[in-house]
Design a protein that fits this description.
Elements: E1 9-13, H1 18-29, E2 33-38, H2 43-50, E3 54-56, H3 62-76, E4 81-84, H4 102-130, E5 133-138, H5 152-172, E6 177-182, H6 210-216, H7 225-229
Parallel strand pairs: 1-2, 1-4, 2-3, 4-5, 5-6
Helix pairs in contact: 3-4, 4-5
The structure holds nicotinamide-adenine-dinucleotide (NAD).
Length: 230
């Protein structure tokens, strides 16, 4: 499939590494003008390496997310595509049920759900006014079923991401804006840091899951970040 996005402007969240970075490269190669955003300041170096404008924003902050969208539109004159990969385990791999607190629950829900909500909310008026927009939110297999991470907050947040995707899709479809979610399996390669730290069935602690994934993946091959991004 040869999809082209010439003339389109894409904002890719979680672009400092892993799947977000691979998505940004794929959009750039397909002709889009791409902006990167991450809360990790390393996004600036990635932006330089990739030749893409990069923004350091914590996307759990609604006002900061709205400011970012405004600034991209001011620079580019439009915003056509949101590709939202920010999120992940929020540093909580291996957290047992009794370890769930207000703070770490809010952290993982914020990283996965609010980060998608606030950017979508801010971008929707520009997309609906243009009559065209594409929003793709990276959820997870953990949004469809229990997770190998063993993480309660992660699984709940990814189910919420899929619910958010469905509601946004209904709300925005009549304006020419489609909203979809990718619920992929893990890429397992160096450079996808979240690929380590997942739970083997029956394991006491997180560890590599290569053997597990050989049996789970339909292709019986380890996936790479760029495979998931396409
Ligand atoms: N890697 C996997 O095995 C896997 C599997 C299924 C789904 N996913 C999902 O895919 C997405 C990307 O995964 P990845 O492996 O590339 O993760 P990653 O941890 O490598 O990258 C996630 C990025 O999101 C950024 N981020 C987190 N919270 C943020 C916030 N509040 N504001 C701005 N940026 C924030 C991080 O700084 C990081 O750069 C995540 O949503 C993850 O849950 C990953």
């Amino acid at each position: 499939m040869d999809l082209r996005f010439d003339g389109r402007v894409a904002l890719v969240s979680g672009g400092a590494q892993g799947i977000g970075r691979a998505i940004a490269i794929a959009f750039r190669e397909a002709g889009a003008r791409v902006h990167l955003v991450d809360r990790d300041s390393r996004i600036k170096e990635e932006g330089c390496d990739l030749g893409l404008p990069a923004h350091v924003v914590d996307l759990t902050d609604r006002d900061a997310s709205a400011g970012l969208v405004q600034s991209v539109v001011e620079q580019e004159g439009r915003l056509d595509i949101l590709a939202l990969a920010a999120g992940g385990l929020a540093g909580l791999a291996g957290l047992p049920l009794e370890g769930v607190t207000d703070e770490n629950w809010d952290r993982i829900m914020g990283a996965n759900v609010k980060s998608a909500l606030w950017l979508s909310q801010a971008a929707a008026p520009f997309m609906t006014k243009a009559g065209w927009g594409r929003i793709v939110i990276v959820s997870s297999g953990a949004g469809l079923r229990p997770s190998l991470t063993g993480l309660y907050g992660y699984t709940a947040s990814k189910h919420a991401v899929i619910g958010l995707t469905k509601q946004l899709s209904v709300g925005l479809a009549r304006h020419g804006v489609t909203v979809n979610s990718v619920a992929g399996l893990h890429p397992v390669e160096p450079g996808c840091p979240a690929a380590v730290g997942w739970m083997e069935p029956g394991a006491e602690s997180p560890g590599p899951v290569r053997r597990q994934h050989r049996s789970l993946g339909p292709t019986r091959r380890h996936r790479k970040c760029h495979t998931v991004s396409r």
